[in-house]
Amino acid sequence: MIKLYWSPRSRSFTAIWLMEESGLAYERVLTDINTGAQKAPDYLKINPMGKVPALTDGDAQLAESAAICAYIADRYPETRLAPAVDDPKRARYLQWLFFSPSCIEPALIQLFTKLEVPTRMAAWGSADQVFDVLDTALQKGPWILGDQFSAADITIGSGLNYAVRVFKMVPPRPSFDAYLDRCAARPAFQRTEKIAAG
After folding, report:
1. Which residues contact 186 (CB under 8 A, 6 or more apart)?
2. CA separation, residue 133 to residues 36, 59, 104, 160 (Å)
3. Which of 31, 54, 134, 198 would suit a FRET pair with 8, their CA atoms being 20 to 30 Å apart?
4. Is 130 helix (H, G, I), strand (E, B) or coil?
5. Distance of CA 179 to the CA centre of its chain
6. Strand partners, 57
7. How far is it, in rounded angstroms, from Cα 93 to Cα 112?
């Protein structure tokens, strides 16, 4: 049985959405970060960073939302959440799958802290560049890979939803609004919102 360790109102949203989209049977294991449950010795054996989400699947265990997305999409190809390894779209899928943790999240931290980082030193370039690149990519739609919804949309959609709609740190743009509306219309996203609210 797949077990997803999660906490309400946290980065667990991405992994919950993934599991809800997958259609796979899984057990949610509440690991409430407000009570410090993520620092319990048994949990630290699964994720030494003491963060949520984390996932176990038999003997496999891992953390980090994008890694969980990659693992489930590849381990269970029947979910159709990733292009096949020999599909040319696979390269762009991998790029966008990791765009949220490697670009969107650092850009949000930069905006939140008002940290000045020279663009030549920042792996994400700048917050403006991140959201301009994403804007251009999403104008093609309906999904980040075109007609195919994938786990990359789950990481991008989660990150963009937090940036634009939840924390309102990034101004809306027509491409963002249309994309987020499509994400929010998905039944799995709607179930996830209810679950993640606690």
Report:
1. 21, 149
2. 37, 39, 11, 13
3. 134
4. helix
5. 15
6. 2, 60
7. 28
Sheet holding 2-6, edge to edge: 26-30, 2-6, 54-57, 60-63
Structure letter (DSSP) for residue 78:
G
> Are 20 and 6 within 8 A, CB to CB?
no
- pLDDT surpassing 70 at residue 122: no
Q: In angstroms, rounded to a whole number, what is the distance separating the alpha carbons of residues 157 and 42?
A: 31
Residue pLDDT, tens place only, 137-160? 999 989 999 999 999 999 999 999
Q: Which residues contact 122 (CB under 8 A, 6 or more apart)?
A: 106, 110
State how far the alpha carbon of 184 is from the alpha carbons of 53, 119, 145, 191, in Å.
Answer: 21, 33, 18, 10
Q: Within 10 Å of residue 24's Cβ, how many Cβ atoms?
A: 16
Q: Give residue 152's identity as a one-letter amino acid code.
A: A
CA dist 185 → 6, 9, 23, 116 (Å):
23, 20, 17, 37
Token digits of residue 92 = 């762009």
Q: Closest Cα partner for 183 from 11, 10, 13?
A: 13
Q: For the packed helices 89-97 and 151-160, what is the interaxial angle rounded to 10 degrees?
A: 30
Residue 119 has pLDDT above 80, yes or no: no
Query: From residue 161, how far is each of 109, 111, 145, 158, 178 by CA, in Å?
Result: 15, 16, 18, 5, 12
pTM for this prediction: 0.94
